[in-house]
Amino acid sequence: MHRLTAIAAASLALGACAGMEAKPKPAAAIHINDDPYPSTYERYPGVVTVIRHATVFDGDGHRIDNGTLVLGDGKIEAVGGPDLASPTGAVEIDGTGKWVTPGIIDVHSHLGDYPSPGTPSLSDGNEATSPVRPEVWAEHSVWPQDPGFSRALINGGITTLQILPGSANLFGGRSVVVKNVAARTTQGMKFPGAPYGLKMACGENPKRVYGSKGNMPQTRMGNIALARATWIKAQAYKRKWDKYYKNGGDMPERDLAMDTLKGVLDGKILVHNHCYRADEMALMIDMSHEFGYKIATFEHAVEAYKIADLLAREGICSSMWADWYGFKMESYDAIKENIPFVHNSGACAIVHSDDPNGIQRLNQEAAKAMADGRRVGINISDEVAWEWLSRNPAKALGILDKTGTLTAGKMADVVLWNGNPYSDYTRPERVWIDGAEMYDANDPKRRPVSDFELGQPGEGDTK
Amino acid sequence: MIRRALALLLLATSTPAAAQTFAIVNGIVARGDGGEPVQGGTVVVRNGRIVAAGSGVAVPPGAQIIDAAGKWVTPGIVAGFSRLGLADVDLGTSAEEGGGGATDTAGSADDTSQTGPFSAAIDVVPAINPLHTTIAVNRADGVTRALVAPGSSKSIFGGQGAVIDTGADMDPVTAARRFQFVELGEAGAGIAGGSRASAHLLFRNALREAAELARFAHPIAVKGERSDDVLLTRFDAAALVPVLRGRQYLLVHVERASDILQVLALKREFSSLKLVLVGASEGWTVADRIAKAGVPVIASAVNDLPASFEQLAATQSNVGRMRAAGVKVSIGMIDDSDTRNLFLERQYAGNLVALTKIPGATGVSWGEALAMITSRPAQAIGMGGEIGSLAPGRRADIVIWSGDPLEGSSAAEQVFIDGVRQPLDTHQTRLRDRYRYLPRRDLPEAYRH
User: Fold this and answer.
1) How many CB atoms lie within 10 A of CB A227?
2) For the segment A274-289, what is each residue's pLDDT rounded down to a tens digit?
3) 3-state secondary structure of A28
4) What is the dihedral of CA B161, B167, B171, B175, to 10 degrees?
5) What is the dihedral of CA A207, A213, A214, A218, to 10 degrees?
6) What value of ipTM does the predicted structure carry?
7) Which of B1, B105, B304 to mutate against chain A (most A CBs within 10 Å)?
8) Using the beta-carbon criterion (under 8 Å), do B431 and A335 form an inter-chain contact?
9) Interface of B with A in 305-324 (CB under 8 A)
10) Short-list B225, B280, B270, CA closest to B81
11) What pTM, to 2 d.p., does this model score?
């Protein structure tokens, strides 16, 4: 085998010598592995399960009273009314007085990169050594033993989350989307096939973090100038690599930071842009047009209500809180109707947490926002509002074809709530991820306890 | 801004005036004393105080009638531990936000005094601004009173906290210098130089210095009567005299079980101390001992993360388990957006009710959950006879809610403080109204006011 190859190579070389005037054919381009830390997640086994007599919000805006959900081999098999037949041998659950929804998806979490306990040695979310750090990847910081994952599951019904770098930097690095299934490694949690995200930030944080050190950016105009200059470099990098991939030849030098930005310009990596103020979101939109990329979400988007029409036109999602306000100048104009106003304008609204406590009650945050909207005449139904918690986040993360709604064939990421999930008195009763039951309120063994908590006071407590 | 504030004040003095007699009728009334709500209840108010509340209460002739049919009526929420009124925009920058820069608050924050020379002597009263947007936002959500503690200072003693109301007027203080605040857990250890042992020594030394000054009728004015080896300024030492004598409550922030027991042990050394534990995330593990000591606790309601090594046993069942063991528990916002988000207490209280349905968890009844955000915090600092419930004689702080107040989706529709109906518009509601409809009109949005 080796000998044959050597002979072939020799004859090729001779051939090249024979035609002296013909230019050597450039070597074919070698494609860089764009998934060097691949997901090793494997779903856990489940049993075919039928939930009957429950109120179902399918996440796609529909409600089924006395609804039936059939969970099959990792996938949702069927959703319907009381007449829906059960597969033979299926486990039947009586959902009377209970609600069934898609698992909640949080597009903005720092579980794992700002874990509990919040010691400096575990704080790994901001590579605040330069405002431009697209080369860092959140998955290289995430500590899979963060006890916060379990609270998000059992109290919050969170089945999927995006873990982002922090917002100290204009370009904070790549995000990672994970299934909320405990694993020994972060790769073991990675959502198979989910695209990467890029965390960007505008406004106060980058200019405060670097301006206070006497470095650029010190101002908002500095923020924009530095981001634009970076995109110009990324465009040049992309041209070089596009040419190489087309024509082959000498491989250009790789740059990890530019790899990420090229991924954005290629439309493969989704931009999640931390931005509070309306005027700044408009600037970021212009920047995306200037350099030819798309913004998937504005994160926090506290003033989205002021430009909801623009956000609808641009097809950009806003990830918002229900009622956080006033913790910094750029959150001063928060209003409690932000989420319903954005929704009402036809734009994509998402309830997000950015918080290890808030992630445990995103359903209640949606309830508050929905009620605030109704009080000013925006009548969003319970079933439509669930889009803020699962469908729209899935869309923003590029995984709506896989999860986010109770649709036959999608991943069976499902929560059975012990009452109306828009009530403060309601909690998850059972949670399935890919059809595997990962939480049961009635079974103390069917809940995750992180390595960190073993042997500690309160180990395995209901929390 | 000033004109707007004056307009608010004028509105606040409109009907019903404090001196009037009025009755809120037909409501679902809960008194905030731990009892369950009653249908068709009546609340009678005269001269800014509660006359009677509950079912079968007669409406006095001539009383102005407010119909609360289909509504819930409760005492106003008492924020059990807060920094309300001390900051408008506080920029408590988290690590996620890049950290640093707690100075960029445009002079609007007075919640900490880490570089000043004083500690125990600090009195929050001069810092409270009743026109902060935070006060209006919480008033509009039914928070009518708050225990306001100073933040940390250069010492373990933060200073003296007050009880305030959130009324739209320029007189926010209900009780000045009601309590002293001290850090004796992880935060205290940090301030004391890195160890709890040092923090406890600082504490004992401070009370020794106070004892020395306590011999004098005017501890501040007296000259030359102090030992040479003092650490505190005269002001700070003198401020601790009422703590030492049990004339001022001492709120102690600790989370860890062993720290809690160390605080309880202080009573053996300083028998007059009127202790209140603040935080106490691991309180449930030593609940019987807290109960036996009779020390009230103002706890975080739903913290369940081992956010630090002093909170490894944190669970949402903490409040319920302490309560079940006989501890006098109320709810506060300890280091949890404490300058702003006090309105979240009622949601948290509702979450504690939710725990009653979870096997292995310990929740609290609806009536007790409401009491924990109304009468219980008032009782913790000896003001239960004045605020926090609809019992006769209490200040008439009343909220008429659109629905069950422990549901975050319910809203405060009418708020009374000392019997005075309050304006509920805020910076936020004005912005909401300005941007309700976005299509371009004849003039810019700035002209919609």
Assistant:
1) 23
2) 999 999 999 999 999 9
3) coil
4) -30
5) 0
6) 0.94
7) B304
8) yes
9) 305-309, 311-317
10) B280
11) 0.94
